[in-house]
């Protein structure tokens, strides 16, 4: 007797942090996995553990997503592998400083990893999934997409881009039977803080930092509910809904022939 499975999930940034936790949760949900990251050794160790604990097939695909050739390999896999039913766009980085005091190369690398890579991978997945009329895309953004005044604007801007991309694709993909979700974590206890030179406990305090396992469990609950945007730490969902309603209410007035009266200059 064959047992149906939900298919294969391809997870970027899977060697540690939120990506590794997604791998664990999705394997326990019955997904086979393709784990993508730069650190091949850590990926192999995680793959061996998950195979032993869950019995799922786990493949390691070592790739540096800031390298265009490596990124193209992952794009091609998403386009060609009909077994892939879920993309988790998780890989990302932050900076130790702002655009005022970091090297241009560091800004460029952040944009390559946080914007270019997930955009191209989402596009490849969206086209493949729409052609099969099934599948899902999960983009890991951040609550900083809604708070540009906090911390570094390059990082928060990259996450606002992912939120925008997700919301823009939600309706056309739904018409093709494909789901897309943006997850907006708050501060989460992962290695990204140490790698960018930040002491998150000193910055925010332990009471404001979510455990990665709790975050992923909540995010997948939101995915199960069919949410386009999931904000795990937000207690009052009505605040998000009010913000959305206010934004949509501006729509009819965002492009008009006449300038607004406050900008008219007397002759």
TrEMBL record:
Could you list this entry's UniProt keywords, alphabetically sorted: Oxidoreductase
Pfam families (alphabetical) = adh_short
Would you say which domain of life the source belongs to?
Bacteria
Q: Which PROSITE patterns match?
A: ADH_SHORT (PS00061)
Family to which this protein belongs? Belongs to the short-chain dehydrogenases/reductases (SDR) family.
> What is the protein's given name?
SDR family NAD(P)-dependent oxidoreductase
């Amino acid at each position: 007797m064959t047992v149906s499975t939900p298919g294969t999930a391809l997870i970027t940034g899977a060697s540690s942090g939120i990506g590794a936790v997604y791998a664990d949760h999705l394997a326990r949900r019955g997904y086979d996995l393709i784990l993508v990251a730069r650190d091949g050794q850590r990926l192999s160790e995680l793959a061996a553990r998950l195979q032993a604990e869950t019995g799922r097939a786990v493949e390691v695909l070592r790739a540096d997503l800031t390298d265009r050739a490596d990124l193209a390999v992952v794009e091609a896999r998403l386009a060609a592998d009909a077994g892939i039913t879920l993309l988790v766009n998780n890989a990302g980085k932050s900076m130790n400083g702002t655009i005022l005091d970091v090297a241009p190369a560091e800004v460029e690398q952040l944009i390559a990893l946080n914007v270019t890579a997930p955009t191209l991978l989402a596009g490849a997945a969206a086209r493949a999934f729409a052609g099969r009329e099934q599948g899902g895309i999960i983009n890991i953004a951040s609550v900083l997409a809604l708070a540009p005044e906090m911390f570094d604007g390059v990082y928060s801007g990259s996450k606002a881009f992912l939120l925008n991309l997700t919301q823009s694709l939600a309706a056309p993909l739904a018409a093709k039977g494909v789901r897309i979700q943006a997850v907006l974590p708050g501060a989460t206890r992962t290695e990204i803080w140490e790698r960018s030179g930040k002491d998150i406990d000193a910055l925010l305090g332990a009471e404001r930092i979510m455990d990665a396992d709790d975050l992923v469990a909540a995010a997948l609950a939101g995915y199960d509910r069919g949410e386009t945007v999931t904000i795990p730490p937000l207690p009052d969902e009505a605040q998000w809904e009010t913000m959305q309603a206010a934004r949509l209410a501006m729509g009819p007035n965002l492009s008009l022939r006449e300038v607004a009266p406050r900008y008219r200059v007397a002759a």
